[in-house]
Every structure is written in C-alpha cells, then in structure tokens.
Amino acid sequence: MNHKEIFYRESKKYQFPKTNIAQEISEPLFVEINRLFSSADGLSIKNGEKHRRVLLALSIVGTLLTFSFLIYDEIEIYGLILACGIMIVCLFVIRHFSVKLDCHRKYLQYRVLAETLRLQYYLSMAAIRMKVSDLLPWSIQMEIEWIKEVLETLPMAETKEKQSVLECWIKDQKSYHQQALKKAEKNNKRDKVIGKSVLFITILAYLIAIVFEFFVYKNNPSSMNINSVRVILKVVLGTMSAVTLFTSSYYGKMSLDNKIDDHRRMIALYQKSEQEIEINGETDELLLSLAREFLSENSNWYAYQKKNNPDLVI
C-alpha cells in the first residue's frame, strides 16, 4: 500500500477533533479542501505526539543504560548487567515499533500536505486559477510525490468573485507565527538553562575529582574511606555524562533554533506582504509570490525535521 492510500485509509478510520480552515464553508471545492486539511492536520498532530514520545523513550532508556553500566562497572553490582541487557532489548523494541508505526514520516508529510491544502484554499478564495501542485518545490515533488497526486485530484476553482485573504490568511498566519515564536523562544531558553546547568555541574564535578586525585587519593591510596569517595566521584562524573547524553539526544532533536528562525522569517514575510497589499492591493502576482515563498519555507522545514528521525541512543 502506497503512502497516498495509507493517508486515505487513516483519514477514514481515525476519529479526531476537527480543525477547519474556516467556520462556514459552502462551495463544494472548499468543502473538499477543508475535509482533506482536517484529516491531514489531525493525523500530523497525532503522529507528532507519537514521534516525540518515541524520542523521549529512547533517550530515557539510553541514559539509564549508560548509568546502569557505570554502576555495574564501578560498584560491581553484578545484577545490573542483566538490567543492561534488558534495556538494550527495550531500545531495539522501541526502535522497531517506531519504524512500524512510521510516525516520524507521517508527522512530517501530513503536515506538508495540510499546509499545501491550506494554501490551495486561500488561492482559490482569491480566484487565482492555479493549482498548488504546479507550485511545489522540486524537492517536495521528488521526495513526497504522493502529495502532488492528492493535490491534483482537486478540481480547479470555479469562483469568479475575488475574496479578500488579507485577514484570514496573511494577518491570521502572521499572528500564529508570532505566538509560536514566543512559545519556541520560551522553550529554547528553558533548554539552554538546563544545558548550561548540566555543563556547570559537570565541570565542577571534574574539578573536584582532579583536586581529589592529586591532593587526597595520591597521598592515601589504600584508605577504605578515600577509595569509597573516589568511587562516588566516578559515579557522579558518569551520571553527568549520562545526563548530557539525554539532553543532547532528546532536546537536540527538538530543532528549536531552526523553528525560531522559521517563525521570524515567516513573520517578516507576512509583514512585508501586508505592507505591499496596503499599497498595491491583493494582486495575483503578489499572492503567487507569497505562495511560492510559503512553499519554499515549508520545504526547508521538512528537510531539517527529516533529520530528527528516532535513533538508538547507546
């Protein structure tokens, strides 16, 4: 079964809260676009949540595996070697299910489909007789050709009366990106505080270990108490390494820096378009130029998010 058939099957089976492009829709073409958009949007959100849960599970189990092996090695709690084996199996099971669910691909591709359908809706509202399938960047056409096939099933808009899209498209999307930027910056600030805190504690533990090795352990290598402190320091250093592994493997795949840049570019793009509309009106040339820039940004988002596929963290 190809990806297009999977999408149609899942959109029929899955029940989810509907997200509509507009509240009141009567024209058959707009109804069909909105129906497909609602399915693609809902399925993208659902699979995005699954993808993030997979990343979190892989990161947590990978970190626990590192920590358990360290404890086994330093304190010689031999039962932990069995726990390490179980966690390795868990990692492969989680990875297997993530491949089977295909949630990362679905999250990304359904989002691309939803956004292209949104764009088609607004172009049709503006009475622009142009299919978004003809505007898709070459990278999207090559990598996700089934999206082009879905878009090509939509009939050409018959609307002759041009409707304004300034409020419902340009200003609304600018507002969305402004809110999303605030949220992304807040999350990015939190992640950087966590990262800096982990780095500070790791450096501090390392400096304490150096002082201990050269000024304490070196002079009393046979003392039981000294050896116990040495083991504890090794465990602390190893624990911080495990925590660093978690922060890089999970938070690193959130791509918040890229998202922040995306939101800023889109805010600037919609702001510029809004200003040009105030001067020249909602011309077909301006709206098509905006559409192409929108699709280009969507393609860039897909390209960097595709790199965040779930990997085994060992």
Record keyword descriptors for this entry:
mainly alpha, 78% helix, single chain
Total helices: the number is 10
Percent range for β-strand residues: under 5%
- The proportion of residues forming helix, as a percent range, comes to over 70%
Number of domains: 1
- Give the end-to-end Cα distance, rounded to a whole number of Å: 33 Å
Overall mean pLDDT score? 88
The whole-angstrom Rg is 26 Å
Shape: elongated
Low-confidence stretches: none
> What is the β-strand count?
0
**What structural class do you assign from the helix and strand content?**
mainly alpha
Largest sheet: none
Order of helices and strands: HHHHHHHHHH
Q: Overview of this structure, please?
A:
The protein has one domain (3-308). The chain is elongated. The protein has 314 residues and is mostly helical. Helix 2 runs antiparallel to helix 3 (79-101), helix 7 (166-217) runs antiparallel to helix 9 and helix 9 (256-280) packs antiparallel against helix 10 (284-305). It is built from ten helices and no strands. The longest helix has 52 residues, at 166-217.
